[in-house]
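Margin note: ligand = zinc ion.
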Amino acid sequence: MLLPLFQCLLNGLPLLSSGSAPPIRLRGYIMKDGFELRNSSGKGEGIFATKSFTVGDTVMIGVIKEVLNGNHSHASQVGENKFVLHDGLVTKVNHSCDPNCGVRENETGAHNFVAIKEIRVNEEITFDYAMRNYIIDYFPQKCMCGSEGCRGRITGWKDLPDKKKKAYEGFEAPYLLELDARGSCAKVVGYT
Ligand SMILES: [Zn+2]
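Resulting structure:
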């Protein structure tokens, strides 16, 4: 599988780590180490930083593993009616209403996670599922993110307040903006 390796090269990532942590090999290609799967208190598994990141850093590189026929709980929405499964640990990143990462589509159409805040070692890596999915179908009504500004439930872009959309500018899946531009985005819905 040459494409992901080529993708890493395109993104300028070193194939050999210059630090103490060795690079990880995932399904035949090498990704820069900087995160790992751990238990996240009260939320099952989560992804945690094993190095610090500054704003604008690419924290995780998205690689599409499979194009899906429809939505499911680990699917990433990459178009109005297009869902994919990302490879590796990208699917394990938890939602937060006050995330430290945003979504940035890469050259392959997959979603990278980019730091929108400083991320310290051992901090959980999170993004807002609304940055990626227009509608959320598969998550419990009650959001468990625990952030101060928690919206109370995990919502999709469709139900995201305009103020929050503005705050996420540049860190959302591009198709969401296309939907908004077409005027098909629903009005802001109040949270009950
Ligand atoms: Zn929340």
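The chain has one domain: 2-189.
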